[in-house]
Amino acid sequence: MHGEPVLERAFRVLGAFTEAGEGLALHTLAARAGLPKSTTSRIAAQLTDVGALERLDNGDFVVGLQLLEIASLAPRGHGLRAAALPFMQDLHRVTGQHILLAVREGDEAVLVERLSARGAAAVKYRVGGRLPLIGTGIGIALLAHAPGRIRMEALAGADDAACVRRLLATVRTDGVCAVTVPNPLRSGPTAMSTVAAPILNRRGDALGALSLVAPDEGGPRTAAVTALRRASLAISRAAGP
After folding, report:
1. Residue-wise pLDDT tens digits, 66-117
2. DSSP 3-state of 77
3. Per mean pLDDT, which range of 21-30, 82-91, 116-125, 205-214 is the poorest?
4. Same domain as 45, residue 106
5. What total of structural domains would you count in the chain?
6. Over the stretch 122-167, which tens digit does the pLDDT of each residue have?
């Protein structure tokens, strides 16, 4: 940590926030950032001065609106979101479940939009949150079209590399995959079904991925697979080259 640039420490402080609307006391902020309390206090005060953080009446820190304003300008997320949103809304109305949109950043997926029906099962996904490329349907859809180095590193850390390889092959041949994953939340169904499809440009590069997340009912997912595939193709055309 000695000699670490101030900007990197500032991002460690900002990265301490993991839940939407979360307020953190200074000692918690310091512990999560892995920084001394005095250093965290100084950096948090500077971030508050520029609007990246805000301070509540009880002294806790929360993420400031200035960050939201800046983040909304990110071209990969914002441009893709604008093209995808009409099709996501159609899927949302028809299915009444969670519709997710993500882009790949390094070896993780970053959620840039989520539409959720009021009656849909609770999930832990949040806009701006990061998801692994292995263990989530939307991550698999992105991984299938990631650079070879990213795929090899992900497969090296997979518990069942053979299964992941089959899913990646399915995405590349069929343009969609379906997986069942455990629900990390104690309430609600024990397993969630995810159908996901990559959103590709004309060169075949992944702009992002789309997924539908719903409780696993053990039945056929043909309708969901067809709907996701059609939506991903439509978004690809709307997003341009």
Report:
1. 877 776 666 665 678 888 999 999 998 888 888 999 999 889 998 888 887 6
2. helix
3. 116-125
4. no
5. 2
6. 666 777 788 889 888 999 999 999 999 999 999 998 888 999 999 9
Helix (H) or strand (E) holding 195: strand 191-200
| CATH number assigned to the domain comprising residue 65 | 1.10.10.10
Last residue of a domain, one of 70, 91, 115: 70
Residue with tokens 């070896």: 107
Residue length of the chain: 241
Residue 58 lies in a domain: yes
Reduced to 3 states, what is the DSSP secondary structure of residue 131?
Answer: strand
User: Taking a C-beta distance cutoff of 8 angstroms, is the pair 236, 84 a contact?
Assistant: no
Over 60: is that where the pLDDT of 189 sits? no
Q: Is the domain of 62 the same as that of 81?
A: no
Q: Is the torsion defined by CA of 184, 186, 188, 189 positive or negative?
A: positive
Name, in order, each residue with C-beta under 8 angstroms of 114's C-beta and a sequence gap of 6 or more: 98, 99, 100, 101, 125, 126, 127
One domain for residues 57 and 167: no
Total-model pTM:
0.72
C-alpha 18: how far from chain center: 12
Q: What is the DSSP letter of 146?
A: S
